[in-house]
TrEMBL record:
This is Flavin-containing monooxygenase. Its EC number is 1.-.-.-. It is an enzyme of class 1 (oxidoreductase). GO terms for biological process: auxin biosynthetic process. It holds the Pfam family FMO-like. The keyword Transport does not apply. The gene is YUC10_5. It comes from Quercus suber.
């Protein structure tokens, strides 16, 4: 049995949900498939307890639903989850849950996308045929763990940051956090709050800023060129945190906002880890040479014992695992092959939402642009009359 759809959206995270709402705004029907048993599964299941959104609320809303004035400027995870729950009911979005999309390819004879999804409750494969296909499976599809020498020989616990909930179970343990991005720094901070002894691997220079400075910088970018905003932001950070080089933390030569636009790498927004580093409650260690049964050797020649290792080494897009004809829109890494702002659209009616490395702000923008574009091509073909 084949089900027909005008637009098929894969993934009911913020990107898929926002795209659904925007399509409804244009009266375009869609089918939304989600492999988990709920929408917004990353936020509900794959994030640590103490997470507070890093960006101010005006950069974290989805189309047609700004946050009300009584929402705090920086939302807690619960607050954001509630917002998405309300969004889903307000726009009457009904994802088909327990549908794990396993293959999608373009059928040239029919000029349509053919998508196979496993119904994980019934164990059957369902086939969907669609005019347009929207990839909304996220930038965080799979946790990425680098291939470190000796990783398999380690006898303690190894987790990726997406499995990390809180420091509660690591009390009194020596824990190595690999990766000094936002997740790594916040997890090290959280571990230290739970009386564990965290060390964090820092291999290269990175920017660390206060969230207020990031907020101010993002607002100033509307009026000032990026190099001025960067200069002001770096002066503020130098004043606020002081010179951190004696703790092994160095600033890149390139400014934080320019770096974000150039490479997609976000500055670290400090939640308190820097104070703990200065107090010696979090140790900074250099790159790893090898991992042994219960210890790790570092590039400065030292070796330390650890009970657990948390890899906060980022994520990979998992779209290419199921999207056979990814080449119409994505590169080998499952990320857009076209440069921003043309990233959202491929050929043959293939789109991607939420893969622009611009957080929820980018998600909202992609959803609107994609729905507008689908509306335009349906209107041009006069098809909307028949929907
Ligand atoms: C710890 C953490 C903190 C973050 N903090 C912020 C923040 O403060 N501000 C900000 O703007 N952004 C933040 N982000 C970025 C975050 O990725 C986005 O906010 C948002 O979740 C992206 O939404 P998405 O819908 O694109 O992807 P996701 O939320 O990952 O949703 C993708 C969905 O697709 C489903 N799926 C995947 N594969 C399949 C398949 N084969 N078949 C069917 N369904 C599938 C998944 O189950 C999931 O529900 C954070 C991310 C992390 C990990
Ligand atoms: C859809 O596209 C048509 C044609 O370009 C346009 O007239 C119409 O306003 C669009 N619909 C919406 C809701 O924007
Ligand atoms: C920070 O301190 C180090 C020495 O500890 C020094 O070499 C470096 O120039 C200082 N950086 C700045 C920006 O002052």
């Amino acid at each position: 049995m084949e089900s027909k759809a005008v637009v098929l959206i894969v993934g009911a995270g913020p990107s898929g949900i926002a795209t659904a709402a925007c399509l409804t705004h244009h009266s375009i029907p869609y089918v939304l498939l989600e492999r988990e048993d709920c929408h917004n599964s990353l936020w509900k299941k794959g994030t640590y307890d103490r997470l507070v959104l890093h960006l101010a609320k005006e950069f974290c809303s989805l189309p047609y639903k700004p946050h009300p004035p009584n929402t705090p400027a920086f939302m807690s995870k619960e607050c954001f989850v509630r917002y998405i729950d309300e969004y889903v009911s307000q726009f009457d979005i009904n994802p088909r849950y327990h549908r794990s999309v396993e293959s999608a390819s373009y059928d040239n004879s029919e000029d349509k996308w053919r998508v196979e999804a496993k119904n994980t409750i019934e164990g059957k494969t369902e086939v969907y045929v669609a005019e347009f296909l929207v990839v909304a499976t996220g930038e965080n599809g799979e946790g990425y763990i680098p291939d470190v020498t000796g990783l398999d020989s380690f006898k303690g616990e190894i987790v990726h940051s997406k499995q990390y909930k809180s420091g509660l179970k690591y009390q009194d343990q020596d824990v190595l956090v690999v990766g000094c991005g936002n997740s790594g720094m916040e997890i090290a901070y959280d571990l230290s709050n739970f009386y564990s002894r965290p060390s964090i691997v820092v291999r290269g220079p990175f920017h660390v800023l206060t969230r207020e400075a990031v907020h101010r910088g993002m607002s100033l970018m509307k009026y000032l060129p990026v190099h001025i905003v960067d200069a002001l932001t770096v002066i503020h950070a130098a004043f606020f945190f002081g010179n951190l080089s004696k703790y092994g933390i160095h600033r890149p030569n390139i400014g934080p906002f320019f770096q974000k636009s150039l490479t997609g790498r976000s500055p670290v927004i400090d939640v308190g880890a820097i104070r703990k580093i200065k107090q010696g409650e979090i140790q900074v260690v250099p790159g790893i040479v090898r991992i042994n049964e219960d210890s790790v050797e570092f590039m400065d020649g030292t070796e330390r014992k650890f009970d657990a290792i948390v890899f906060a080494t980022g994520y990979k897009s998992s779209a290419n695992n199921w999207l056979k004809d990814y080449k119409y829109a994505l590169n080998e890494e499952g990320m857009p092959k076209n440069l921003f702002p043309a990233h959202f659209k491929g050929e043959k009616g293939l789109y991607c939402a939420g893969l622009s490395k611009r957080g929820l702000f980018g998600v909202a923008r992609d959803a609107e642009t994609i729905a507008d574009d689908i509306n335009k091509s349906l209107s041009a073909r006069n098809w909307k009359l028949y929907l």
